[in-house]
Amino acid sequence: MKLSNYFLPTVREIPSDAEIPSHRLMIRAGMIRKVAAGIYSLLPLGLRVIRKVENIVREEMNKAGAIETLLPSIVPSELWKETGRWDFYGKELLRITDRHQNQFCYGPTHEEVMTNLVRNEVKSYKQLPLNLYQIQTKFRDEIRPRFGVMRSREFTMKDGYSFDCDEEAAAISYQKMHDAYSAVFRRSGLRFGAVEADTGQIGGSASHEFMVFAETGEDVVVSCSKCGFASNVEKAEVSPAVINPNEQVPQLPIEEIETPDKKTIGEVSGFLGKEEWEFIKTLIYTIDSGKEHIAVLVRGDFEINEPKLKNLLGADEIELASPETVKDITNASTGFAGPHKLECRIVADNSIENMVNAVSGANRDDYHLININIGRDFTPDIVGDVRLISLGDPCPKCRDTIEFHRGIEVGHIFRLGTKYSEAMKATYLDTNGKKKTIVMGTYGIGIARIAAAAIEQCNDENGIIWPYSIAPFQVVIIPLNIKNSELVNSANGIEEKLREAGFEVLHDDRNERAGVKFADADLIGIPIQVIIGPRGISNGEVEIKVRATGERRNIKIEELTDEVQKISVKLLES
Ligand code: ATP
Ligand code: MG
After folding, report:
1. Is the CB of 92 within 6 Å of ligand 1?
2. 413 DSSP β-pair partners
3. Ligand 1 in reach of 412 Cβ (< 6 A)
4. Is 363 within 8 Å of 289 (Cβ atoms)?
5. Which domains does the chain have, with CATH numbers?
6. What's the predicted TM-score (pTM) here?
7. 159 CB-near residues (< 8 Å, 6+ apart)
8. Integer Cα distance of 163 and 130 in angstroms
9. How far is the CA of 90 from the centre of ligand 1 (A)?
10. Which ligand is nearest to the CA of 451?
11. d(CA 346, CA 438)
């Protein structure tokens, strides 16, 4: 491919609205352009990477026995009503009305459509197991689209669904997908791990997320190197037994203390000379768009884990209450809530169960209570595990020390059981002619997120360093002076030869300064650069530069193809 005929609009300036390296570099390398919030065009270079990722995914899915299909993106509301998700999916679901006032959604995931297909076609155990997948555009009206294609509203997903006779067979299908996903991410050149995950909107009994480790990841993974435990912090259980240093102290009379303008635990603890662990943090939450408001209590030095809280309550949506609601419920401004004499349901985290003489808000502006005691001064309606695991906690499996890492979720697999098949009556006849419900699994991979995650893991101050397997081209040829006809002929010959040998070659034949060409080559991150200069040519030599290591070497033109081959094998193995 001659660059002069290609469409590769690179950008020198750092885009001001891009917060993380992959977003900045995908714009600068001419891979993507924004059309609207969370909606992007893929330019040719970006598309080449996406196709590479898709091919790896496709190969591994096919190898694992999954079969490719393609479902519509626009889905009639009737199917979503059968599972109840039309009402419960929330604001991420983009709803559409046609000219006949029929309602549809732009599919954010396709459990309903695939289950509908299978229930209509599958009648007998002989047709199972079945694993169908597609690579398709999804739409989710994300509350905060950001980081470019990492969290966009429109994006391409590989989504797959397995259908089995029973739980035992479904476990085998799940493991096959687990292995296939590992192969996909390994082949894509990523450092990743599979971790236990919350089942969220999709539901089901078990689930793993595949996390690419990167500082910029939005997720936090907790792991234990001793027993191998690894989980999204959203899901990680916390051991109920929290030792409070003052557990054995006698209860003192409750007392209201003036704390003018002191709202945060930090401010109040300084003012009262108390430690953060002596506080009961009280947050007011709104459940299911205002159906109920509740108070949630956690020890002052811990954080509430919203997915756990949501699961404990069996709620579809929870959010921190607005300042007006807080005022309604507590009679006080945000920052002064406490459980004493509170007229709403109280959910308490296990961590407050054995607190003695705690500090909390007094439900009165500028006042806090000291010596508040559970059982005597308030009684929670529910006590459970609703906090985030934190650094001092032991491993929930083996009680050894835990570690935290940031990660980017690139894939997610779920065991669904019969949640969807039961709702949609997807059944089959077993060997005895008895009607049984199909057992399902669902599996998703974010295609562009893989590309972005690869950039997060592999970049330097000059640009992208593509893993060889998903690089848009494998070799870039850089002739330094296109006015020199000998040099141009030689560059054309090398392009031809490398292409014939099976390499994807970008030939920077532009009439640009060498510095511009070098900068662009480094920016777009092609693994192998072949630099053709007048001095080398007169000796029958070119220079090879490996983008990942910066290593440069002169090579005889006759040996170039072999050398590129050798470097490629090495890069693929690294
Ligand atoms: P997240 O927690 O990041 O929102 P999710 O749990 O909602 O992800 P799934 O429903 O499991 O995601 O979707 C499967 C895969 O699709 C994810 O693992 C991710 O790689 C990709 N994906 C999900 N949402 C987006 C998005 N907004 N933009 C790009 N890729 C996405
Ligand atoms: Mg999501």
Report:
1. no
2. 208, 443
3. yes
4. no
5. 50-218+404-455 (3.30.930.10), 255-384 (3.90.960.10), 473-573 (3.40.50.800)
6. 0.92
7. 109, 110, 133, 134, 136, 138, 442, 443, 444, 445
8. 5
9. 16
10. 1
11. 39
Q: Given ligand 1 and candidates 89, 92, 449, which is best to mutate, with the most ligand atoms within 8 Å of its CB?
A: 449
The torsion defined by the Cα of 479, 481, 485 and 487, in degrees rounded to 10, comes to -40
Please tell me the distance from the alpha carbon of residue 74 to that of residue 7, in angstroms, as a whole number.
31
Q: What share of the chain is helix, strand, coil (3-state, %, to 5)?
A: 30, 30, 40
- Ligand closest to Cα of 109 equals 1
The predicted-structure confidence for 59-108, as pLDDT tens digits, reads as follows 999 999 999 999 999 999 999 999 999 988 888 999 999 999 999 999 99
Of all atoms in ligand 1, which is nearest to the CA of residue 444?
14
3-class secondary structure, 139: strand
Cα 238 to averaged position of ligand 2 atoms, centre (Å): 24
Summarised one tens digit per residue, pLDDT across range 28-70 is 999 999 999 999 999 999 999 999 999 999 999 999 999 999 9
Give SS3 for 224: coil
pLDDT reading at 240 higher than 90: no
How does pLDDT run across 522-543, given as a tens digit for each residue?
999 999 999 999 999 999 999 9
Closest Cα to atom 30 of ligand 1: 446
Task: Give dist(CA 530, CA 495) in Å, integer.
Answer: 10
Task: Please give the Cα distance from 4 to 290 (Å, whole number).
Answer: 59
